[in-house]
Specification:
The protein has 361 residues and is α+β, with helices and mostly antiparallel strands. Helices cover 23% and strands 35% of the residues. It contains eight helices and 21 strands. The two termini are 40 Å apart. The structure holds adenosine-5'-diphosphate (ADP) and magnesium ion.
Amino acid sequence: MRSVTLQDINKTYLDKNRKLTPVLAINDFNLHIDNGEAVVLLGPSGCGKTTLLRIIAGLEQPDSGTVFYNDRPLESIPLRERGIGMVFQNYVLIPHWESRKTVGFFLRLRDREHEVPAHVETVANITGVDIDRLLGKFPRNLSGGEKQRISIARAFARDLELLLFDEPFANLDAKFRARARVELKRLIQEFNVTLVYVTHDQVEAMSIADRIVVIDAGRIVQSGTYQELLRNPDSLFVAQFLGMPPINTFWGRVNQGEWDGSYMGRARLPARREDGREVIVGIRPQHVHLCDSAVGIPAIVERVTPYYAEKFNLLEVWLRKRRWKIQVSMNQSFAPGDTIHCRLDWNMALFFDAVSGARIR
Ligand code: ADP
Ligand code: MG
Protein backbone atom coordinates (compact mmCIF):
# COMPACT_ATOMS: atom_id res chain seq x y z
CA MET A 1 0.00 0.00 0.00
CA ARG A 2 1.36 3.33 -0.98
CA SER A 3 0.31 6.95 -0.92
CA VAL A 4 2.23 9.64 -2.78
CA THR A 5 2.49 13.27 -1.76
CA LEU A 6 4.00 16.04 -3.84
CA GLN A 7 4.85 19.07 -1.74
CA ASP A 8 5.70 22.46 -3.26
CA ILE A 9 7.41 20.97 -6.30
CA ASN A 10 9.15 23.33 -8.73
CA LYS A 11 11.19 22.36 -11.76
CA THR A 12 12.91 24.58 -14.31
CA TYR A 13 14.69 23.48 -17.47
CA LEU A 14 17.15 25.53 -19.46
CA ASP A 15 15.97 25.68 -23.06
CA LYS A 16 18.96 24.88 -25.27
CA ASN A 17 17.21 26.27 -28.35
CA ARG A 18 16.65 29.66 -26.76
CA LYS A 19 20.03 30.62 -25.31
CA LEU A 20 19.34 28.65 -22.15
CA THR A 21 16.24 30.65 -21.22
CA PRO A 22 14.72 29.02 -18.15
CA VAL A 23 11.43 27.17 -18.77
CA LEU A 24 9.28 26.67 -15.68
CA ALA A 25 8.03 23.13 -16.31
CA ILE A 26 6.45 22.53 -12.88
CA ASN A 27 5.14 25.41 -10.84
CA ASP A 28 4.39 25.10 -7.08
CA PHE A 29 2.79 21.70 -7.46
CA ASN A 30 0.98 20.13 -4.50
CA LEU A 31 -0.90 16.85 -4.73
CA HIS A 32 -1.79 13.96 -2.47
CA ILE A 33 -2.60 10.57 -3.99
CA ASP A 34 -4.20 8.02 -1.68
CA ASN A 35 -3.35 4.37 -1.24
CA GLY A 36 -4.94 2.43 -4.07
CA GLU A 37 -6.18 5.53 -5.86
CA ALA A 38 -6.09 5.79 -9.66
CA VAL A 39 -5.15 9.35 -10.53
CA VAL A 40 -4.89 10.57 -14.09
CA LEU A 41 -2.75 13.61 -14.89
CA LEU A 42 -4.52 15.14 -17.87
CA GLY A 43 -3.33 18.09 -19.89
CA PRO A 44 -2.15 19.30 -23.28
CA SER A 45 1.23 18.44 -24.71
CA GLY A 46 4.06 20.29 -22.96
CA CYS A 47 2.11 21.02 -19.75
CA GLY A 48 4.60 19.05 -17.60
CA LYS A 49 3.02 15.59 -17.25
CA THR A 50 6.10 13.55 -18.10
CA THR A 51 8.29 15.76 -15.94
CA LEU A 52 5.97 15.22 -12.97
CA LEU A 53 5.91 11.47 -13.46
CA ARG A 54 9.72 11.39 -13.62
CA ILE A 55 9.87 13.43 -10.42
CA ILE A 56 7.44 11.00 -8.72
CA ALA A 57 9.65 8.11 -9.90
CA GLY A 58 12.78 9.78 -8.53
CA LEU A 59 14.33 9.93 -12.01
CA GLU A 60 14.30 13.71 -12.04
CA GLN A 61 15.31 16.01 -9.19
CA PRO A 62 12.93 18.91 -8.52
CA ASP A 63 14.60 22.33 -7.96
CA SER A 64 12.66 22.56 -4.72
CA GLY A 65 9.97 20.61 -2.90
CA THR A 66 9.67 17.03 -1.69
CA VAL A 67 8.08 13.79 -2.85
CA PHE A 68 6.81 11.48 -0.10
CA TYR A 69 5.96 7.78 -0.38
CA ASN A 70 3.57 7.27 2.50
CA ASP A 71 5.22 9.64 4.97
CA ARG A 72 8.83 9.07 3.96
CA PRO A 73 10.77 11.42 1.69
CA LEU A 74 11.54 9.59 -1.54
CA GLU A 75 15.30 10.18 -1.34
CA SER A 76 15.47 8.36 2.00
CA ILE A 77 14.00 5.19 0.46
CA PRO A 78 16.49 2.75 -1.11
CA LEU A 79 15.83 1.96 -4.79
CA ARG A 80 15.01 -1.71 -4.10
CA GLU A 81 12.24 -0.73 -1.67
CA ARG A 82 10.50 1.74 -3.93
CA GLY A 83 8.16 -0.82 -5.54
CA ILE A 84 7.55 1.18 -8.70
CA GLY A 85 6.46 -0.24 -12.04
CA MET A 86 6.92 2.22 -14.87
CA VAL A 87 5.86 2.41 -18.48
CA PHE A 88 7.09 5.47 -20.24
CA GLN A 89 6.26 7.15 -23.48
CA ASN A 90 8.71 5.84 -26.12
CA TYR A 91 10.10 3.40 -23.62
CA VAL A 92 13.59 2.32 -24.58
CA LEU A 93 14.27 -1.39 -24.13
CA ILE A 94 17.85 -2.59 -23.75
CA PRO A 95 18.75 -3.54 -27.35
CA HIS A 96 20.83 -6.66 -26.67
CA TRP A 97 18.38 -8.17 -24.17
CA GLU A 98 15.77 -10.70 -25.20
CA SER A 99 12.32 -9.68 -24.01
CA ARG A 100 12.36 -12.62 -21.58
CA LYS A 101 15.39 -11.12 -19.82
CA THR A 102 13.82 -7.64 -19.72
CA VAL A 103 10.58 -8.91 -18.22
CA GLY A 104 12.24 -11.27 -15.73
CA PHE A 105 15.06 -8.98 -14.60
CA PHE A 106 13.64 -7.85 -11.25
CA LEU A 107 12.47 -11.30 -10.16
CA ARG A 108 15.57 -13.12 -11.40
CA LEU A 109 17.80 -10.85 -9.30
CA ARG A 110 15.83 -12.10 -6.30
CA ASP A 111 15.92 -15.77 -7.33
CA ARG A 112 12.18 -15.71 -8.01
CA GLU A 113 12.18 -16.30 -11.74
CA HIS A 114 9.45 -18.94 -11.32
CA GLU A 115 7.00 -16.07 -10.62
CA VAL A 116 7.54 -14.54 -14.05
CA PRO A 117 4.96 -16.62 -16.03
CA ALA A 118 2.08 -15.49 -13.79
CA HIS A 119 2.99 -11.85 -14.39
CA VAL A 120 3.29 -12.42 -18.10
CA GLU A 121 -0.22 -13.85 -18.11
CA THR A 122 -1.48 -10.76 -16.26
CA VAL A 123 -0.10 -8.55 -19.00
CA ALA A 124 -1.42 -10.78 -21.77
CA ASN A 125 -4.84 -10.08 -20.24
CA ILE A 126 -4.28 -6.35 -20.30
CA THR A 127 -2.98 -6.02 -23.81
CA GLY A 128 -5.08 -8.75 -25.38
CA VAL A 129 -2.22 -10.64 -26.90
CA ASP A 130 -0.39 -13.79 -26.04
CA ILE A 131 2.98 -12.25 -25.29
CA ASP A 132 4.74 -15.59 -24.81
CA ARG A 133 5.75 -15.49 -28.43
CA LEU A 134 7.38 -12.07 -27.94
CA LEU A 135 9.60 -13.24 -25.11
CA GLY A 136 12.24 -14.79 -27.36
CA LYS A 137 12.64 -11.65 -29.46
CA PHE A 138 15.03 -8.72 -29.32
CA PRO A 139 13.72 -5.13 -29.39
CA ARG A 140 14.78 -4.62 -33.03
CA ASN A 141 12.33 -7.37 -34.03
CA LEU A 142 9.37 -5.90 -32.12
CA SER A 143 6.80 -3.42 -33.42
CA GLY A 144 5.98 -0.29 -31.41
CA GLY A 145 2.92 -1.93 -29.90
CA GLU A 146 4.89 -5.09 -29.04
CA LYS A 147 7.62 -3.07 -27.32
CA GLN A 148 4.94 -1.35 -25.33
CA ARG A 149 3.52 -4.72 -24.26
CA ILE A 150 6.96 -5.85 -23.12
CA SER A 151 7.40 -2.67 -21.06
CA ILE A 152 3.99 -3.21 -19.47
CA ALA A 153 4.97 -6.81 -18.65
CA ARG A 154 8.22 -5.52 -17.16
CA ALA A 155 6.30 -3.00 -15.02
CA PHE A 156 4.12 -5.74 -13.53
CA ALA A 157 6.79 -8.42 -12.99
CA ARG A 158 7.97 -7.16 -9.59
CA ASP A 159 6.81 -6.37 -6.07
CA LEU A 160 4.49 -3.60 -6.96
CA GLU A 161 3.01 -0.78 -4.94
CA LEU A 162 2.96 2.07 -7.40
CA LEU A 163 2.39 2.07 -11.15
CA LEU A 164 3.54 5.08 -13.14
CA PHE A 165 2.21 5.03 -16.69
CA ASP A 166 2.99 7.67 -19.29
CA GLU A 167 0.59 7.29 -22.25
CA PRO A 168 1.27 3.53 -22.11
CA PHE A 169 -1.27 2.42 -24.70
CA ALA A 170 -0.45 5.03 -27.34
CA ASN A 171 1.07 2.43 -29.67
CA LEU A 172 -1.63 -0.21 -29.27
CA ASP A 173 -4.34 -0.69 -31.89
CA ALA A 174 -7.55 1.17 -31.14
CA LYS A 175 -9.50 -2.04 -30.51
CA PHE A 176 -6.97 -3.18 -27.88
CA ARG A 177 -6.72 0.23 -26.27
CA ALA A 178 -10.29 0.26 -24.95
CA ARG A 179 -9.92 -3.28 -23.63
CA ALA A 180 -6.52 -2.48 -22.10
CA ARG A 181 -8.01 0.37 -20.06
CA VAL A 182 -10.79 -1.76 -18.65
CA GLU A 183 -8.39 -4.58 -17.81
CA LEU A 184 -5.87 -2.22 -16.19
CA LYS A 185 -8.60 -0.69 -14.06
CA ARG A 186 -9.72 -4.15 -12.92
CA LEU A 187 -6.18 -5.23 -12.05
CA ILE A 188 -5.22 -2.21 -10.00
CA GLN A 189 -8.41 -2.65 -7.99
CA GLU A 190 -7.71 -6.34 -7.52
CA PHE A 191 -4.09 -5.82 -6.44
CA ASN A 192 -4.70 -2.55 -4.63
CA VAL A 193 -1.91 -0.80 -6.48
CA THR A 194 -1.72 2.98 -6.59
CA LEU A 195 -1.74 4.29 -10.14
CA VAL A 196 -0.55 7.59 -11.60
CA TYR A 197 -1.48 7.65 -15.26
CA VAL A 198 -0.51 10.39 -17.68
CA THR A 199 -2.48 11.19 -20.81
CA HIS A 200 -3.70 14.05 -22.98
CA ASP A 201 -6.78 12.01 -23.96
CA GLN A 202 -9.97 12.72 -22.04
CA VAL A 203 -11.59 9.41 -23.05
CA GLU A 204 -8.65 7.54 -21.56
CA ALA A 205 -8.79 9.71 -18.43
CA MET A 206 -12.51 9.14 -18.03
CA SER A 207 -12.25 5.36 -18.23
CA ILE A 208 -9.29 4.93 -15.87
CA ALA A 209 -9.41 7.67 -13.25
CA ASP A 210 -10.93 7.74 -9.79
CA ARG A 211 -9.80 11.35 -9.94
CA ILE A 212 -8.59 13.46 -12.84
CA VAL A 213 -6.04 16.19 -12.18
CA VAL A 214 -6.10 18.73 -15.00
CA ILE A 215 -2.76 20.42 -15.61
CA ASP A 216 -1.90 23.51 -17.61
CA ALA A 217 1.55 25.10 -17.80
CA GLY A 218 2.95 23.10 -14.90
CA ARG A 219 0.11 23.85 -12.50
CA ILE A 220 -3.00 22.06 -11.29
CA VAL A 221 -5.96 23.93 -12.69
CA GLN A 222 -8.67 21.68 -11.27
CA SER A 223 -9.24 18.13 -10.08
CA GLY A 224 -12.28 15.92 -9.72
CA THR A 225 -14.20 13.14 -11.41
CA TYR A 226 -14.87 13.48 -15.12
CA GLN A 227 -18.51 14.36 -14.45
CA GLU A 228 -17.58 17.02 -11.88
CA LEU A 229 -15.11 18.65 -14.25
CA LEU A 230 -17.57 18.53 -17.12
CA ARG A 231 -20.49 19.99 -15.17
CA ASN A 232 -18.59 22.37 -12.98
CA PRO A 233 -15.44 23.71 -14.61
CA ASP A 234 -13.68 26.47 -12.67
CA SER A 235 -12.18 27.97 -15.80
CA LEU A 236 -12.61 28.39 -19.53
CA PHE A 237 -9.53 26.20 -19.99
CA VAL A 238 -11.16 23.20 -18.29
CA ALA A 239 -14.51 23.85 -20.02
CA GLN A 240 -12.80 23.79 -23.41
CA PHE A 241 -10.35 20.97 -22.69
CA LEU A 242 -13.03 18.51 -21.50
CA GLY A 243 -16.25 17.59 -23.21
CA MET A 244 -16.95 15.85 -26.46
CA PRO A 245 -17.81 17.38 -28.86
CA PRO A 246 -16.15 20.56 -27.53
CA ILE A 247 -18.18 23.33 -25.92
CA ASN A 248 -19.56 26.24 -27.99
CA THR A 249 -18.16 29.58 -26.80
CA PHE A 250 -19.22 33.12 -27.63
CA TRP A 251 -17.82 36.48 -26.71
CA GLY A 252 -19.94 39.27 -25.26
CA ARG A 253 -19.95 42.23 -22.86
CA VAL A 254 -21.79 43.01 -19.69
CA ASN A 255 -24.53 45.50 -20.51
CA GLN A 256 -26.86 46.74 -17.76
CA GLY A 257 -25.88 43.75 -15.66
CA GLU A 258 -26.65 41.19 -18.37
CA TRP A 259 -24.46 39.27 -20.81
CA ASP A 260 -24.88 40.91 -24.23
CA GLY A 261 -23.67 38.92 -27.22
CA SER A 262 -25.08 41.23 -29.91
CA TYR A 263 -26.71 38.82 -32.45
CA MET A 264 -26.84 36.17 -29.75
CA GLY A 265 -29.09 38.28 -27.59
CA ARG A 266 -28.88 38.74 -23.87
CA ALA A 267 -28.65 36.40 -20.92
CA ARG A 268 -28.78 36.76 -17.18
CA LEU A 269 -25.37 36.53 -15.51
CA PRO A 270 -25.05 34.23 -12.49
CA ALA A 271 -23.24 36.97 -10.54
CA ARG A 272 -22.90 40.74 -10.77
CA ARG A 273 -20.17 42.17 -12.99
CA GLU A 274 -19.71 45.79 -13.93
CA ASP A 275 -20.84 46.99 -17.36
CA GLY A 276 -18.30 46.77 -20.16
CA ARG A 277 -16.52 43.67 -18.82
CA GLU A 278 -15.82 41.05 -21.48
CA VAL A 279 -17.48 37.73 -20.74
CA ILE A 280 -17.40 34.42 -22.64
CA VAL A 281 -20.47 32.22 -22.53
CA GLY A 282 -20.17 28.48 -23.08
CA ILE A 283 -22.99 26.14 -24.10
CA ARG A 284 -22.27 22.46 -24.65
CA PRO A 285 -23.48 20.76 -27.86
CA GLN A 286 -25.69 18.54 -25.66
CA HIS A 287 -27.53 21.60 -24.36
CA VAL A 288 -28.92 22.77 -27.66
CA HIS A 289 -32.20 21.00 -28.40
CA LEU A 290 -34.15 20.64 -31.60
CA CYS A 291 -37.69 21.95 -31.37
CA ASP A 292 -40.75 23.14 -33.20
CA SER A 293 -40.39 25.81 -35.87
CA ALA A 294 -42.98 27.97 -34.08
CA VAL A 295 -40.81 28.47 -30.97
CA GLY A 296 -37.25 27.57 -32.06
CA ILE A 297 -34.42 29.68 -33.37
CA PRO A 298 -33.77 28.87 -37.04
CA ALA A 299 -30.38 27.50 -37.99
CA ILE A 300 -28.83 26.25 -41.23
CA VAL A 301 -26.97 22.93 -41.21
CA GLU A 302 -23.49 23.26 -42.66
CA ARG A 303 -22.02 19.85 -41.94
CA VAL A 304 -23.12 16.51 -40.45
CA THR A 305 -20.61 14.17 -38.78
CA PRO A 306 -21.78 10.79 -37.47
CA TYR A 307 -20.24 9.44 -34.25
CA TYR A 308 -21.23 5.80 -34.57
CA ALA A 309 -19.67 4.50 -31.35
CA GLU A 310 -21.32 7.23 -29.26
CA LYS A 311 -24.54 7.01 -31.30
CA PHE A 312 -25.02 10.66 -32.14
CA ASN A 313 -24.70 13.05 -35.06
CA LEU A 314 -22.71 16.22 -34.70
CA LEU A 315 -24.31 19.08 -36.60
CA GLU A 316 -22.32 22.19 -37.39
CA VAL A 317 -24.87 24.92 -38.00
CA TRP A 318 -25.20 28.66 -38.47
CA LEU A 319 -27.43 30.10 -35.78
CA ARG A 320 -27.80 33.83 -35.18
CA LYS A 321 -24.78 34.51 -37.37
CA ARG A 322 -22.56 32.25 -35.30
CA ARG A 323 -21.24 28.78 -35.98
CA TRP A 324 -22.48 26.19 -33.45
CA LYS A 325 -21.89 22.53 -32.75
CA ILE A 326 -25.03 20.62 -31.84
CA GLN A 327 -25.34 17.00 -30.73
CA VAL A 328 -28.47 15.25 -32.00
CA SER A 329 -29.72 11.68 -31.95
CA MET A 330 -28.83 9.37 -34.83
CA ASN A 331 -32.52 8.62 -35.45
CA GLN A 332 -33.02 11.84 -37.36
CA SER A 333 -31.18 12.44 -40.59
CA PHE A 334 -29.96 15.83 -41.69
CA ALA A 335 -28.09 17.15 -44.70
CA PRO A 336 -26.12 20.33 -45.34
CA GLY A 337 -28.48 23.17 -46.26
CA ASP A 338 -31.37 21.91 -44.08
CA THR A 339 -33.09 24.44 -41.86
CA ILE A 340 -33.58 23.29 -38.29
CA HIS A 341 -35.00 24.98 -35.19
CA CYS A 342 -33.24 25.03 -31.86
CA ARG A 343 -33.77 25.88 -28.24
CA LEU A 344 -30.72 26.91 -26.19
CA ASP A 345 -30.74 25.64 -22.64
CA TRP A 346 -29.51 28.80 -20.92
CA ASN A 347 -29.81 27.10 -17.51
CA MET A 348 -26.81 25.01 -18.50
CA ALA A 349 -24.78 27.94 -19.86
CA LEU A 350 -21.39 28.63 -18.28
CA PHE A 351 -19.96 32.15 -18.00
CA PHE A 352 -16.28 33.07 -17.85
CA ASP A 353 -14.35 36.29 -17.41
CA ALA A 354 -12.75 36.77 -20.84
CA VAL A 355 -9.52 38.21 -19.40
CA SER A 356 -8.76 35.80 -16.53
CA GLY A 357 -10.74 32.81 -17.82
CA ALA A 358 -12.24 32.36 -14.33
CA ARG A 359 -15.77 31.03 -14.05
CA ILE A 360 -18.44 33.54 -13.06
CA ARG A 361 -20.88 31.94 -10.66
P1 ADP B 1 4.22 16.76 -21.33
O1 ADP B 1 4.65 15.40 -20.91
O2 ADP B 1 2.98 17.24 -20.63
O3 ADP B 1 4.07 16.88 -22.81
P2 ADP B 1 6.87 17.58 -20.45
O4 ADP B 1 6.93 17.26 -19.01
O5 ADP B 1 7.54 16.65 -21.38
O6 ADP B 1 5.35 17.81 -20.89
O7 ADP B 1 7.51 19.02 -20.69
C1 ADP B 1 7.13 20.16 -19.94
C2 ADP B 1 7.92 21.37 -20.41
O8 ADP B 1 9.30 21.22 -20.10
C3 ADP B 1 7.86 21.60 -21.91
O9 ADP B 1 7.87 22.98 -22.13
C4 ADP B 1 9.13 20.95 -22.41
O10 ADP B 1 9.55 21.54 -23.61
C5 ADP B 1 10.10 21.22 -21.28
N1 ADP B 1 11.12 20.17 -21.12
C6 ADP B 1 10.89 18.88 -20.79
N2 ADP B 1 12.05 18.18 -20.70
C7 ADP B 1 13.04 19.06 -20.98
C8 ADP B 1 14.49 18.97 -21.05
N3 ADP B 1 15.12 17.83 -20.77
N4 ADP B 1 15.17 20.09 -21.39
C9 ADP B 1 14.53 21.25 -21.65
N5 ADP B 1 13.20 21.41 -21.59
C10 ADP B 1 12.46 20.35 -21.26
MG1 MG C 1 4.85 13.65 -22.08
